[in-house]
Amino acid sequence: MTTWIILFVAAVFGGVLNSVAGGGSFLTFPALLFVGVPPINANTTSTAALLPGVFASITGYREDFPKATMFVVWLSVASLIGGFAGALLLLGTPQEAFKRLIPYLLGVATLTFMLSKRLSEWMGRGEHQIAAPSPRALAGISAAQLVISVYGGYFGGGIGILMLATLGLMGMRNIHAMNAVKTVLAAIINTASFVTFVFARNIVWPYAAVMIVGSTIGGYFGARYVRRFDQSLVRGFITVVGIVMTVYFFVRQGF
């Protein structure tokens, strides 16, 4: 019963955080490790648990989606390929090797999250929306998205801010339009990895089921109520959690 409560509560708060500022995996992934799920299975189960919230958030940005969408098609293809590739790479990684990578992955995710507010403020200064990137720019951004998607399929923490950065380099400045594109691409990456994990039978479904319920409840609560809170406090909480989890896993491995 204690295991179910831990996972349900972690999923509720993970859903809340994802609906407000992201970072839900900082809670769901360590919670699964804490109850004894092997590292790779914990990662795949966490992906399954938080996936419904990703799709739910798409509806919130439907009015902000940019009118020029051809570049989104190319980025979507890169996201699909990268999501599958990253998931396959994860499944091919030995449990012990992935376990050693955990503190570094969490550290990268925490660092990108810490930088996200400043980056978002910079990108929100203008309202420019790119109409049609040049073929060279499109090739470059697609290659960057492919790399991000491989990382997203492998672990996923921090991919949102990485995608915002690449969209900013492409010339987009409207943060709402950028979030709309980012959310769609994240849904594609997570869906590709989720399908791969399902066919590999790598998800711990009893745990995933209770966490899906929890993250859905948390996502609804976050969208309705938590957005009213001071966003700096929410982001500060997520940052602290990320730092604590990173330090904990470094210490646990004897670094």
Record keyword descriptors for this entry.
255 residues, mainly alpha
Describe the protein's architecture and organization.
The structure is a single chain. The protein is mainly alpha-helical and about 260 residues long. It has one domain (about 1-250). Helices cover about 80% and strands about 0% of the residues. Helix 5 (about 95-125) packs across helix 7. It is globular and about 55 Å long. The model has no long low-confidence stretch (mean pLDDT about 80).
Outline:
The chain has 255 residues and is mostly helical. It is 79% helix and 0% strand.
List the helices and strands and how they pair.
Layout: H1 2-20, H2 25-34, H3 39-60, H4 70-91, H5 95-123, H6 135-154, H7 159-170, H8 175-199, H9 205-224, H10 231-252
Helix pairs in contact: 1-2, 1-3, 1-9, 2-3, 3-8, 3-9, 4-6, 4-8, 5-7, 5-10, 6-7, 6-8, 7-8
Give the low-confidence spans: none
- SSE series: HHHHHHHHHH
Overall, the morphology is globular
The count of β-strands is 0
Number of helices: 10
Task: Tell me, rounded to a whole number, the average pLDDT.
Answer: 80
Main beta sheet: none
> What structural category arises from helix and sheet content?
mainly alpha
For the CA atoms, what is the radius of gyration?
17 Å
